[in-house]
Write a structure and sequence with these properties.
By secondary structure, the protein is of the alpha/beta class. 39% of the residues lie in helices and 15% in strands.
């Protein structure tokens, strides 16, 4: 990166791009040229900064001044004040608590200061489309170290010692997987990066590829070297990630142009290349055997794993598959050593690779939390620290109700367990899972029955249909939940849901079906009273399930505050509201379709919901 006095780091992750960050970049460059500042200020497009809820974002380096919610129309004034007059513009900044310094730097903002970056170490610091930026931040030093000073066995030993477990959901020890693949005889082996990220609300892998694709490439090259006899690698990315695909293709070509992929890497006899394969967006293709079937041009359906993919995977050859975040961790472990990595996290992996949760984990923090975005925190941090410190607490002062971890196949963790350490073992104990890193925060206005129905509908829709337990069992469970939210449920339905759940978990062909009932099981375990209220009283405590609600108009608020304005009557699609103009209006419960439009349009709080 050129030694400009000021670098304007514009976030160009998908979230900010959708909010015109590319247009902001163009206006910035025009304003810099207009003020003749070309030799002083440089505009750099970076990957995702993580603070997605505050985008579009720009960080002014080297001071680390953080600007948020930018618009194209803000830029001329911002350039005039900050770059020309030297006065940072507070109205575009993060608003700090009173005890913080007047002009908050990025490293002082709680969202950022509460994180530990390993996989996201280059977040917001480099242009992902320039290999020179990655190299300037220490990129490919780990590969150079491996190819010049370490044997494949020494690399493998270091990864095993680190205790790194797969970040894609299963948490399988990475070094053990590599070692098993290495021991299987075969002249042709493969490594694969799983970037088929399909969980609702999850965007960890997408952001890493968009912001730091070379870290994944470097990790895959190191893995291929350690496993041996690996000359081909694939990265499988879903079609819905066009920006990630574009940047990964650019990075692969740059690596080839610089002799980092292809034949005789670093003038050695080691040869390895990577190809990009695009998936059509089937959630089940996140499962290893379904993913490999898709790469080979077959339907994306899983197979029984009595023979593991490390023995017979892609084209029936030994294959090692890890996800994006796992590969991105590899270069740092090689550079800094296994002991550094094991110093982060929980447990002891000295004698048991399953004995702990080492390193950091990237989560996409979404839902009813103030600071939504991408966070990387040490394993063992509590849910409370993530939600209330990094996440800034619950929106609008609402009460924290639960957090759902592990994507649609994860479980709900209630407020009573908010001090639970976040690691593989502790999440499993309470019925949830680490998964790939989705974390959805729920507040008092979320109905747990409705949320369980939402996630089950997703997994039911995404089932490949190959096995009966998943195909039919999830459909039966969804039908029961749908009846409960309509007020047609029975108490015995709750026992039937648990029975069906256990059957699906035990007999499904792959992990999609085996974990699909988790949202239902955990919501029944921790929020059974909410189910019973739906079943016995035909009421939804969170006022979410429309069929169980009754809409009415408060006469006093309608007349005194709204003066009988009639807005609700005009907008009611069912013609259920009537009344004279400038007089009290009423809702005919027989006609009311319970759509909630009247509640949404009334500005005077006259619509009551029970």
């Amino acid at each position: 990166m050129k030694p400009y006095t000021i670098q304007l780091m514009i976030c160009a992750g998908t979230g900010c791009v959708s909010n015109q960050s590319f247009e902001i970049k163009e206006v910035l460059e025009k304003e810099i040229k207009k003020h003749n500042l070309q030799n002083e200020a440089m505009v750099v497009t970076t990957g995702c900064n993580g603070f997605c809820g505050a985008g579009p974002i720009m960080v002014v380096q080297p001071d680390g001044i953080f600007y948020q919610y930018l618009k194209v129309t803000d830029i001329p004034y911002l350039v005039e004040e900050h770059l020309v007059k030297g006065r940072p513009v507070k109205k575009f900044m993060y608003v700090p608590p009173k005890e913080e310094i007047p002009i908050p730097r990025m490293n002082k903002i709680p969202f950022f200061s509460g994180q530990t970056l390993v996989a996201l170490r280059n977040r917001g610091m480099i242009d992902p489309e320039f290999i020179e930026d990655y190299i300037a931040r220490g990129g490919y030093r780990a590969l150079a170290k491996v190819l010049t000073t370490m044997s494949p066995d020494e690399v493998l030993k270091e990864i095993k010692k680190s205790g790194l477990r797969g970040r894609g959901g299963g948490g399988f020890p990475t070094g053990v997987k590599w070692e098993t693949c290495k021991k299987i005889p075969g002249d042709r082996k493969f490594v694969i990066c799983n970037a088929d990220e399909g969980d609702p609300g999850a965007f960890m892998d997408r952001s890493i590829i968009e912001g730091d694709p070379h870290s994944v490439i470097e990790g895959m090259i190191i893995g291929a070297y350690a496993i041996e006899n690996v000359r081909e690698g694939y990265i499988y990315v879903r079609m819905e990630y066009p920006l990630a695909i574009k940047r990964f293709n650019i990075a692969v070509q740059q690596a080839k142009d610089n002799g980092l992929l292809g034949d005789n890497i670093f003038d050695t006899n080691f040869c390895f290349d990577i190809k990009v394969r695009r998936g059509a967006g089937a959630f089940v293709c996140g499962e290893s055997t379904a993913l490999m079937a898709s790469i080979m041009g077959n339907p994306g359906e899983p197979r029984a794993k009595y023979i593991h993919t490390v023995e017979k995977g892609l084209y029936d050859c030994p294959t090692c598959l890890n996800n994006v975040e796992t590969w991105a961790n590899i270069p740092q472990i090689v550079l800094k050593g296994a002991d550094w990595f094991t110093g982060i996290g929980t447990g002891d992996v000295t004698h048991d690779p399953w004995g702990g949760s080492k390193g950091t984990k990237v989560f996409s923090l979404a839902g009813k939390v103030n600071n939504t975005g991408l966070v990387e925190v040490p394993m063992g941090i509590t849910l409370r620290e993530i939600v209330f410190n990094v996440g800034g607490g619950i929106r609008d002062g609402k009460r924290f109700k639960a957090v759902q971890t592990g994507g649609p196949s994860g479980g709900f963790i209630p407020e009573s367990l908010v001090d639970l350490p976040v690691d593989y073992d502790e999440l499993t104990k309470v019925g949830s899972m680490m998964g790939s890193g989705g974390m959805v925060v729920l507040d008092e206005n979320n109905c747990m029955v409705d949320m369980a129905k939402f996630f089950l509908r997703f997994t039911q829709d995404e089932s490949c249909g190959k096995c009966v337990p998943c195909r039919e069992g999830t459909k039966r469970m969804y039908d029961i939940l749908y009846r409960i939210t309509k007020g047609e449920g029975k108490e015995e339905d709750l026992d039937l849901l648990e029975e069906l759940s256990n059957m699906i978990v035990e007999s499904s062909l792959c992990a999609l079906g085996g974990s699909a009932p988790n949202p239902v099981l955990t919501s029944l375990k921790y929020f059974r009273e909410e189910y019973l209220t739906h079943v016995r009283d035909k009421k939804c405590p969170a006022k979410v399930c429309r069929e169980l609600l009754t809409f009415s108009i408060d006469p006093e608020k309608c007349l005194e505050n709204g003066h009988g304005c009639g807005v609700c009557e005009k907008n009611c699609p069912d013609g259920a509201i009537y009344g004279e103009k400038k007089n009290v209006h009423f809702i005919d419960s027989m006609k009311c379709g319970k759509c909630g439009v009247c509640f949404d349009v009334c500005k005077f709080g006259a619509i009551t919901v029970e």
